Amino acid sequence: MRSVRRSTRALAVAVSLLAVVAGCSRADSTDSAAPAATTGGTPATEVRLGYFPNVTHASALIGLDKGYFTRQLGAGTKLTPTKFNAGPDEVSALLGGSLDIGFIGSGPAINAFSKSDGETVRLVSGATSGGAQLVVKPEINTPQDLQGKIVADPQAGNTQDVSLKKWISDQKLTGVNVQSEDNSVTLDQFRKGAVSGAWLPEPWSSRLVAEAGAKVLVDEKTLWPNGKFPTTVVIVRKDFLTQHPQTVQAVLKSVLDANNLAATDATEAKAAVNRQLKTLTGSALSQPVLDRAFENIELTTDPLASQFPQLAQDQVTAGIAKSAAKLNGFFDLNSLNAVLTAAGKPTVSAAGLDRK
């Protein structure tokens, strides 16, 4: 798993030298402090944060469990976390103004930008690469074996729905019935034999493998250069980013804190995710499922911006959009790169998509 690795000693030096200028020191997971002020804007009195109860949202789950968000935001900012089960619902909350920042799939992130004509949201960070698979019944050995079968995904228009439908198009399959339903329902339907496969994010692909006898037909990593693709990113309402840049930086510092824990203490990072999943869903994952799910993801703040034009085109191929969304101006990585610089880490590229 590709994670952000940190040295506590190097961090202390970075904080002392850069906090005044950049206002974006990264606090160590065990020795954190309130964020320093940044130029422009004011701290928000509240930040409404969206996320999913999925392992692909591990940075959010770890940050909530370990108190990183609350610590970095400081006493003057209330954290209001909100759970979502699929991207389109979270998009509606962001565009409707009831959510400020969201961990979300790359597909719905593009949709949020496109639906608002590029005015409402900005992509400010990556969160997770990888962690999605097409898992099928043991007797399914080739794409053609899915002809006439039902294959499930989480929700029409979400990230996995686009990936599945694009793959079906590439394979020239004309008889596959795509059924969008809640992931827990998909698990139950797969056990009953009502669906023959599912394109799912972690931990659900691992649950079907470990608990229902599924096997992997396609790991989405194999479809992307170097096996990397943006499963989860962080988007922010543009007005919130403009008014409260230091609050956004505090959230991004918390993402680095979570990544640091995953890099230095994977056992505790997994436990933190599992505690949150039990709280949110009523049940924890088995250790084999949790371990497999973590093996399939990479926690990274790099949003892999250069892949977004292809992701937008994939929506057209999948029949989700009539034309590829224009993504110029979608990315604003200034806050993230300030945080990375203060932490002594390399900055990440917007691949030109920060310009109108």
TrEMBL record:
Q: rRNA-binding among the record's keywords?
A: no
Q: How is this protein annotated for GO cellular component?
A: periplasmic space; plasma membrane
Instruction: Show which residues constitute the signal peptide.
Output: 1-27
The protein's predominant localisation is membrane
Tell me one Pfam family matched here: NMT1_2
Q: Where in the cell is it found?
A: Cell inner membrane; Periplasm
Would the keyword Electron transport be found if you checked this record's keyword annotation?
no
A single Gene Ontology MF term assigned here is: ATPase-coupled transmembrane transporter activity
Supply the InterPro entries for this chain: ABC_SsuA_sub-bd, NrtA/CpmA_ABC-bd_dom
| Swiss-Prot/TrEMBL keywords | Cell inner membrane, Cell membrane, Membrane, Signal, Transport
Q: Which family does it belong to?
A: Belongs to the bacterial solute-binding protein SsuA/TauA family.
What is this protein identified as?
A: Aliphatic sulfonate ABC transporter substrate-binding protein
Q: What is the lineage of its organism?
A: Bacteria, Bacillati, Actinomycetota, Actinomycetes, Pseudonocardiales
